[in-house]
Design goal:
The structure is a single chain. Helices cover about 10% and strands about 40% of the residues. By secondary structure, the chain is mostly beta strands. The strands form 2 sheets. Strands 1, 3, 4, 6, 9 and 11 form a 6-stranded antiparallel beta sheet that branches. It is globular and about 60 Å long. The two termini are about 25 Å apart.
């Protein structure tokens, strides 16, 4: 039988077709809860107050991590995620962040560092290869691509640091969400 997945779908039920698409999809996704993000030293974030980064709700709508104007603690944030068992280390992992700021007064950037950790393999170098990226006023997706050199096969974890750059003396920065994207290893070699 040759042909596209759509032609194959004629012979498989609708739920079966969706299951087949999921199995054949090479793109993987790891959500990161905003609750898993801490200050880089591991201090938990709480409700944003004074000049310390924390959670806030914007206009009674979305909940964000708010890095306030003249931030005194929380300009560097971190989280740790286990690598998925189907991660293909021959392809880069991407860290994505949906980020914006209150106005457009400060030239702010977000930088990312990614440190792989595995069984008996710790204290590795940063594998993230994208330069610090400008933050726009409107929320935009920032993508940080990791080098495959130094990436560890599962079971492993990635320790990620997000660092605000520039002087935020006029604009608060909002982190709306964070996730990882990767390529799945479809067949064992």
């Amino acid at each position: 039988m040759s042909g596209s997945l759509n032609e194959l779908a004629r012979f498989i039920s609708a739920p079966g077709t969706e299951a087949l698409k999921a199995l054949l999809n090479t793109k993987g996704f790891v959500p990161v809860s905003l609750g898993d993000v801490t200050q880089v030293d591991g201090t938990a974030l709480t409700k944003q107050a004074t000049t310390v980064a924390g959670y806030s709700q914007i206009a009674s709508k979305e909940t964000v991590i708010n890095i306030p104007v003249n931030c005194s603690a929380g300009e560097s944030l971190g989280f740790v995620v286990p690598t998925p068992i189907d991660l293909d280390i021959k392809f880069p992992v991407e860290v994505h962040a949906l980020v914006g700021k209150t106005a457009n007064n400060d030239a702010l950037t977000l930088d990312c560092e990614v440190y792989p950790v595995g069984v008996g393999d710790v204290a590795n170098a940063d594998i993230q290869a994208t330069a610090a990226t400008a933050i726009t006023q409107a929320a935009s997706e920032l993508t940080f691509t990791c080098s495959t050199t130094g990436m560890l096969a599962p079971p492993s974890v990635l320790s990620v640091v997000l660092a605000l750059g520039g002087t935020n003396d006029q604009d608060a920065t909002y982190i709306y969400g964070v996730w990882l994207e990767y390529t799945k290893l479809l067949l064992n070699e």
